[in-house]
Amino acid sequence: MSVLKHAAERILADLPNDLARLIYLASIRDYNSGIYLQTELSRRYGVSLVDDILGIHHKRVFQNLLEMPVCAYVDQLGLYISFAGASRAELIKMWKDLEAYNSAIPFQCDKLAAEVFRLNVLSALSILERAT
Predict the structure, then answer these.
(1) Range(s) of the domain holding residue 48
(2) Positive or negative CA dihedral for 41, 46, 52, 55?
(3) DSSP string for residues in 115-131
(4) How far apart (Å, rounded) are the C-alpha atoms in residues 97 and 95?
């Protein structure tokens, strides 16, 4: 389990910040089953163990974000936009229109925590939108 934990941490360390990590973790979570599936790790360590470890990481990264002020969301979202390779205006518009950031929230998350996250992301999007 320790080897798997370190392997997962190495994958997440390649991402520029917690917002990017949160989005990545949500993107490898199967929408039908809720199971985290990372091809290399799942094949090597088994789906169940990988699901457990990545679920823990998802909740931890989410909690880290909840503890940050909105200005940190602005900084992290700005870096994420650069990392994503999309145009700033287009990404901001899509995030506001589609509210895709909602899918980044871990399952069985406290409703108040989820709402704080949503408001922080929306605030950061608005700040970035006005700065362009």
Answers:
(1) 2-131
(2) positive
(3) HHHHHHHHHHHHHHHHH
(4) 6
Q: Which of 73, 71, 70 is nearest to 22 (CA)?
A: 73
d(CA 3, CA 30): 23
Q: Place 11 in a pLDDT band, splitting at 50, 70 and 90.
A: very high
Domain total for the chain? 1
* pLDDT at position 1 over 80: no
The dihedral sign for the CA sequence 98, 106, 25, 60: positive
Return d(Cα 52, Cα 14) in angstroms, integer. 20
Cα–Cα nearest to 73, from 131, 127, 6, 35: 127
Contact in structure between 123 and 115 (CB atoms under 8 Å): no
pLDDT band at 15 (very low <50, low <70, confident <90, very high): very high
Exposure pattern of 87-119 as b/e (b: 16+ CB <10 Å)?
ebeebbeebeeeeebeebbbeebeeeeeeebee
